[in-house]
Amino acid sequence: MILALARDHFVPTMKTMTCAQLGGPCEEKITGNTPDELMANGMKHLEAAHPEMAADVKATPQDDPKMVEWSKKFHEDWEKTPDSM
Ligand SMILES: [Zn+2]
Prior knowledge:
Blueprint: H1 2-9, E1 15-18, E2 29-32, H2 35-49, H3 51-59, H4 65-80
Antiparallel strand pairs: 1-2
Helix pairs in contact: 2-3
């Protein structure tokens, strides 16, 4: 019973979004099993490929309207993105 519940709750879904979908300037593919994971991988890509943009994002508070709007759009896009497996 507990196992069944846990399995229903955690469905591993690998999704792929592009850097551009995350607001970045290139078409690099970013993958993740959860929105948080994809966001973290996106951040890693920013740091590696677009350090100025990464610094900009880090300097912006999470509750900045720009970030709130971005996060809302990101989660909408996440829902719309089909699983890649
Ligand atoms: Zn990029």
